[in-house]
Structures are given as C-alpha cells and as structure tokens.
Amino acid sequence: MAALVELAGAVAHELNNIFTAVAGNLSLLDEDLPGDADSSARIGEVIRTAQRGIVLSSKLQAFAGRQPLRRKRSDISRLVGRVVQDLPPARLDGVRLRVALAREECPSFVDEDKLRACVDEILRNALAAMPDGGQIIVETRSHTAGAEPTKNMPALRPGRYVMIAVSDTGKGMAPHVAARAVDPLFTTKTPGINAGWGLSNCAGFVRQSGGYMTLASKLGLGTRVEIYLPLQQG
Predict the structure, then answer these.
(1) Whether pTM exceeds 0.85
(2) Cβ distance 206 to 76 under 8 Å?
C-alpha cells in the first residue's frame, strides 16, 4: 500500500505538470487565433478537461502526502471550535449541534488552514447526509495509543494524540461506499456541484501530519469520522 501511495504521488506530480502546460498553451493559442467561434469553443472544452486533470492530480498528490505544509504549534480544540462557530446558521437549519471540546490545551504541530479545510469538509458531508435534519456531535480529546494496534486503527503508532471526531445521524453509507470514501478517484457527489476539499485530501493531509484518520458508517444510522494528530509535548 505504501508503494502504491508513493507511486500515485509521483505520477500525480508529472500529470499536474503536463495538464498545466496543456491548459496554459491552449489559453495562449486561443488568444492568438482569429475570431473563430467554433475553434474557440473546442479549445475551451479541452482547457476545461485539462483543468479537471489538474484538480484530480492535486487530489492524488494530497492523498499521497505531497502537499506543501505550513506547520506550527496549534491548540486543536480552539481551532476546531472556530471552524464550528464559522458555520453559517442557514446550514444548521433543523440540525442539533453538540460540541464537546477538551478543556485542556491539546496542541499539535499542523498546517492550520488545511486542518480547517479538513474539518469543514467533514462537517459539510455530515450536513449533506441529513437533508431532513438530525444531530451532529463534534468532539476533541486527548488519546493514548498503546503498543498493541486496535482493529480499526492498525497503523496508529504508540503515543499520545489529539482526537477530533465528527458524528452524524444521517443517511450513512453502504459498506462498499464507505470502503471507498477516501479514494481520490471516487465521489458520491453529483457532477458539477462544489465537491469541497475531499475526504481523500483529508486522509492524505492527516497521514502527512503524522496522524491517522478513520471512517465508520452504517446505512441509515449515520457516519463517524475520527482524526488522530500527534500531541505536541511541552
């Protein structure tokens, strides 16, 4: 699996360069051509296709843990609290929101902007899964991983972590959908709508930050996503 992730990152980097060059040169070509509406329309379609390739390659790079990160020591509970506070009230219509943040400082060494985007993406998914209302629970707390790996977190190394959890009582996912939820090539969203940052980006970011992400879901019963980030001592 590690070899596949590394290969995906290397291929994505090269594809990103190719798609960027194609889109850029076609844009210049379109400017140089005389006013030919048909040719301009065809070029525009190819440019849009190349741009979709750029987005996909960026997702693959994130999944492979090749994002540029600006890390600093951050109190995760405070950061998550700010993300929740920034949710537009209209998006919470009919939703009971319960927030249980750790009272003690829970610092980790992370890229704050990307962690905000990650938590916001998970909340967006939770809200989208409850069109008729429901409940979302957002939690943070410290967690100690022992030497023996657990069934749902076999790759979590022993140590102290900050846990972020988002649970919802939404539609949930069938097992085959949940198994692919963090796949960068898979989405349940309707084509053409804003798909947000993507769970694959979240998973890649968490791994790159030295952490671990889990997703558990049952059809008709809801979904729970947990993120574990290394606790910054001192």
Answers:
(1) no
(2) no
